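User: What would this chain look like folded?
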Amino acid sequence: ADKKAEFGALIIASTLAMCLVASASDLLLAFVSLQFLNVLGFFLAGYSKRSVQSTEAAVKYMAFSAVAAGLLLYGFAILFGATHSLNLQEIHRVLVASPLSESKALVVFMLVFLALCFQTGAFTMYLWAPDVVEGAPTPVTALFAVAPKIAAMSLTVSVLMGPFKPLFVQWQQVIVAAALMSMALGAFAALRQNNIKRLMAYSSIGNVGYVLLGLASGTEKGIQSVVFYLAIYMVMTLGVFAVILLMKRKEIMVEEVSDLSGLGRSHPMMALAMLIFMFSLAGIPPMAGFWGKLYIFMAAVEAKLFWPAILGVLASVVASYYYLRVVKVMYFDEPADALDAPAMGVARAVAFAAALLIAVFSLAPQPLSSVAAAAAKGLFP
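Assistant: Here's the prediction, encoded as structure tokens.
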């Protein structure tokens, strides 16, 4: 009971930290809330004290978060020294009136962006993600794969479209490069993964790449596509990890893709939910993931990022292989020892609720798109 209370307290505190990160309006609050989130993440990653993998995940998370904290603090310090303000809107106003030199602007941007890449798991600071996602307890993995990334991406959008908006010319190509490398890494590195948690970690890196491509457009439609895609990604990924939590054989959790063999026959509803998530992640029409990627690529094309959009489509095609491989294992491979019947509980409810939401978003994406448009409009007065 004590352990359950302790775990619940850490999750609640992490949720508070993520809310602070997403709503931060000044540099100090952004830095403190991010470090609060990272400390809690360290404890959650190493929560299984008797697991060597969990301890390794915690150490790696702590090491990378320390490097990211140093980069972020240094970048914020230079920004504060140049503008004499911590408020994001005030920094934007000062930089519009007296822009930084190109060299200083690039240095500050690279320091801040590299630190935020750690939080989002984008290319250059992604190395912690696969090991931490695989080694941490599965409920923690589900948290790492979704909520902190969305909170950090919200802060990234606020910083780039706020203080750094006058420096758009300097940072656009850096974002494009990070997006392309993230998409390529997510597409090709996951091809060889047999552990489904590790596969989803690389998939997450690829999905961050699509979001960065929408951000690189620097337009209202680009930000709208980012908000829309993040909402779809949250539901898809939560659904996948809910199914992973249900993957048990004789009350022991299993994590290999091959463990899903014959799931379509032994547990058809569970397999159907996983099929919906995989098709959506692959971007197969008319699934919700398809609409998310379409909006991203349309925004990139309108911003004249033609080659990045084309390469993004190709990366999505490559990535569809390992998503469809999961479907093939569930429906066409010879059945393995059947998984335990999904027990009634939170994981089962989340899996089927997420599948239903994806189905609704697939058939009627417009309401969510309208909400995303309203959110993006606030950054373009």
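The chain has a mean pLDDT of 91. If you want, I can go into more detail on any region.
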